[in-house]
Specification:
By secondary structure, the chain is of the alpha/beta class. It has a domain at about 5-40 and about 100-205: P-loop containing nucleotide triphosphate hydrolases (Rossmann fold, 3-Layer(aba) Sandwich). Helices cover about 45% and strands about 15% of the residues. It has nine helices and five strands; from the N terminus they run βαβαααβαβαααβα. The chain has helices at about 20-30, 40-50, 60-70, 80-95, 110-115, 135-140, 155-170, 175-180, 195-205; strands at about 5-10, 35-40, 100-105, 120-130, 185-190. The protein has a five-stranded parallel beta sheet with strand order 2-3-1-4-5, with helices on both faces. Helix 1 crosses helix 9 (about 195-205) and helix 2 crosses helix 3 (about 60-70). The chain is globular.
Length: about 210
């Protein structure tokens, strides 16, 4: 029988520090549990950089991943099996066990994806990194999280597109999961907030929700 992995979903606009926080959680754990950081954007970039498609992906899927990155697309229902394939591949490679926590970063990004993910994971907690549009641009310009080097998707027009997508499609997930009884932890970040400070706030703050 397949395991539905316990998961924490990181939510925040591009540049808010999700990837550095996910890496920090993987290194230090959370509430005494080992964590596995699934960074969807990073996985897409790794696949796209391959000269030939990785073994489990078709040439068409390989080209589509590149298009997703070049145009800052969201995976809709008809393409979501590709995302599930990427998640399943990650879980196999990491040997994620029961009692360990999966840190989801970049997936799901809208309600349709959330429904499709239910068969793979059980999201019990959301960590919401809150910051303004101005702060996003400041953090990306300063590379505050030390994770923006060589990012082809950091051109200004793509950043603006991703910010619009976040407000329209991803931010509503907070209410979606809150209605399902998930715990919500909100952390405000500035242009200079370091990953270690976010982690300290995460382990200190009491979540809201049912």
């Amino acid at each position: 029988m397949s395991i539905r992995h316990d998961a924490v979903l990181l939510i925040g606009p591009t540049g808010s520090g999700k990837s550095p926080l996910g890496d920090h959680l993987e290194e230090h754990g959370l509430a005494g549990r080992r964590c596995h950081h699934f960074d969807f954007g990073s996985r897409l970039r790794q696949i796209a950089l391959e000269e030939v498609p990785p073994e489990e992906f078709t040439p068409h899927e390989h080209l589509f991943v590149r298009e997703v990155l070049e145009k800052a697309l969201l995976l809709e229902g008809e393409h979501f099996p590709l995302a599930q394939k990427i998640v399943s591949s990650f879980l196999r490679q990491r040997y994620c066990r029961q009692g360990e926590t999966l840190i989801l970063n970049g997936l799901p990004r809208h309600a349709g994806q959330a429904a499709a993910m239910d068969g793979l994971v059980s999201i019990s907690r959301l960590v919401v990194l809150e910051c303004s549009t101005e702060t996003v641009h400041e953090r990306i310009r300063k590379n505050t999280g030390q994770d923006r080097t060589g990012r082809p998707d950091d051109e200004r027009h793509l950043i603006e597109k991703k910010l619009r997508q976040f407000q329209e499609r991803t931010a509503p997930l907070i209410g979606h999961y809150e209605d399902r009884g998930c715990k919500i932890i909100r952390i405000r970040v500035t242009g200079d907030t370091a990953t270690g400070a976010v982690y300290e706030e995460l382990v200190r703050v009491r979540p809201t929700g049912r």
